[in-house]
Write a sequence for this structure.
């Protein structure tokens, strides 16, 4: 009886370990993505295909051009800094001065106003919604961020995201709006991130008249004085699930390259070539 109980306990433990991931599902313009967090491991799936991830040992990976780009996360950060320094070193003195002025202007750009506009529920979590400037809204959950930090163990995942964000800022790739979003993301998990987009040209008035009254009134309410339709578009978390299984990833058909190789070939990629590499899938 004792032996049976012990065996049952071990089996139950194994099952619990196999289904222990927290899964955050998001939607953006009909496209579905899932973020998996379990015991220091992170995987992002887009439309049920692997996109990027990080393991508990500090290795990062992502899929680009049918290739699996993988390296330690630290090596990726170092390669990004080295690439930046190399690109700057290759510039003429005049071009370097222009770039440095542009980066200085970016760093000195006044921050956008960030104001709390209210609280609401998203996917079962109470979130704080913030207006960033006049065209963007971000809602965050401190509780979900704490749960993910706990799931990820030593907090390496959140720290690494912050370091990648800071590295992008150092390279002059972060504008005041993105900086505000990054700083909010350090306080809570983004449950909603939407910005105003304008649709143009607008519908002809004759076409509007053929629409049902409710739909016509909704479109008219979103239409500015210049006839442009203004809508909010972006990412929204639709569900958060616990004790789920991590996805089974098969990278056997991807060509594997290091992050440094990826950066070295990035210029060739913009020309539609990968010199020295076989076509994706071979």
């Amino acid at each position: 009886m004792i032996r049976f109980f012990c065996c049952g306990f071990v089996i139950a433990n194994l099952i619990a370990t196999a289904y222990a991931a927290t899964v955050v599902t998001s939607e953006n313009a009909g496209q579905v993505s899932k973020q998996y967090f379990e015991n220091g491991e992170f995987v992002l799936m887009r439309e049920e295909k692997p996109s990027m991830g990080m393991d508990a040992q500090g290795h990062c990976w992502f899929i680009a051009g049918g290739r699996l780009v993988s390296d330690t996360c630290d090596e990726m950060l170092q390669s990004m800094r080295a690439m930046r320094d190399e690109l700057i070193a290759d510039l003429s003195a005049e071009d370097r001065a222009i770039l440095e002025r542009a980066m200085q202007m970016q760093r000195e750009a006044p921050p956008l106003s960030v104001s709390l506009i209210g609280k609401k529920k998203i996917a079962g979590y109470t979130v704080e919604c913030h207006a960033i400037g006049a065209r963007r809204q971000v809602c965050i959950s401190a509780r979900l961020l704490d749960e993910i930090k706990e799931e990820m163990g030593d907090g390496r995942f959140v720290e690494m995201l912050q370091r990648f964000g800071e590295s992008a800022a150092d390279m002059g790739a972060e504008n005041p709006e993105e900086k505000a979003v990054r700083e909010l993301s350090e306080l809570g998990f983004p449950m909603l991130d939407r910005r105003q987009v304008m649709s143009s040209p607008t519908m002809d008035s004759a076409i509007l008249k053929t629409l049902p009254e409710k739909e016509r009134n909704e479109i008219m309410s979103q239409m500015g004085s210049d006839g442009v339709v203004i809508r909010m578009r972006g990412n929204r978390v639709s569900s958060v699930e616990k004790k789920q299984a991590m996805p089974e990833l098969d990278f056997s058909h991807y060509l594997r390259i290091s992050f440094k190789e990826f950066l070295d070939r990035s210029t060739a990629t913009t020309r539609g070539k990968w010199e020295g590499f076989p076509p994706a899938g071979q």
Summary: The radius of gyration is 23 Å. The first strand starts at residue 21 and ends at 28. The chain has a mean pLDDT of 78. The chain has one domain: 2-270.
